[in-house]
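Lab meeting prep.
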Amino acid sequence: MKSLIMLAAAFAATTPLLAADAAGKDDVTAAAKKLDAAANYSWTTTMESSRFTPGPSHGKTEKGGYTYLDFSMMDNTIEAVLKGTNGAIKTEEGWQSLADAAKGGGDGGFNPARFMAMRVQSTKAPAAEAPDIAAKAKDLTKTNDMYVGDLTEDGVKSLMMFGRGGGPGGFQPPPITGAKGSVKFWVKDGVLTKYEYKVQAAMKNQDGDDMDMDSATTVEIKDVGATKVTVPDEAKAKIGG
């Protein structure tokens, strides 16, 4: 009987903590839903990496309409437009549908248009991405207007998978090991304003040696309700809208 009482007491002590953890994720999801309900908004994404640090990327989206994206790649700026499940990307030959760009040249070599099309297809607006990242956290604890927590091992691996899919001839990249990471969400007046996630892990290089990888990605949201999305007619034609 004494053991049962102690077990019940221990369970009662942990239940509020578990509820708080779940509430943190629920709060972030609710803040993202409020952002999604806005007529429009903009965002800037920056990343610092131990291996490769790209330039900042930007996005503008309107509810039920178009999403415009631009990415800095070397000395070039890549433009893309999404609407629903369709999209278009600006290449050296002009605007091209994502479906056509994703086909590549078919020779198995590196194709910049195909690479960027895959990146665009995997891009989510903050209102959609934030809840997905929150779900990858072990728990989220509120501190003032910020929610913080550690990411699960599987969550870190999924965030580090971009660009590591199988290649020609069935090539598969080496597995990720030692994955760990953390995440922060900023909320003001019940609306998501910023989030940041840091991940680190290791993988084998072509010589079989361990290669450490770490990165920090920050997404800042702005101009909620005051963003104007302008889409070139050529891009609209490729999207079909």
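Slide two material, second protein:
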Amino acid sequence: MQETREKIWNHLSGDHYAKHLGIKVLEWGDGRAVAELDVSEFMLNAHGTVHGAVIFALADTVFAVACNSYGKTAVALSMNIGFLAPGFLGNRLRATAEEVKAGGKTGWYRISVENEEGLVAQLDALAYRKNQPFIND
């Protein structure tokens, strides 16, 4: 089991965009993931707050790790985001993805993004899980 888990992580940690943004996955397991991102100046919009695309990218990263954590290729069918509060330069954003319901080929996930002051964004996401594993046992 540990060898399989390592193979899954080796595959999932190859997300070049997440690496470029500085996203660090702190925890992951069956249907869940937690990651953090330190907000840099290049991540700000014209109003001086964190660009929505950065918040979404962090949420999408934990969603991808959570729904692919079983070793089968999973892709997003839909994601709905609510931006609830701004993030700012110097904030550490933390995203948590939790599997709410999985059955057959789909999985429903709830993703929260928070900063030091509280909830920044909330997402609901639907994943489609393909039959083929992306690792070889």
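Talking points for slide two:
The first strand starts at residue 24 and ends at 29.
Strands lie at 24-29, 32-38, 72-83, 92-103, 106-115, 118-133.
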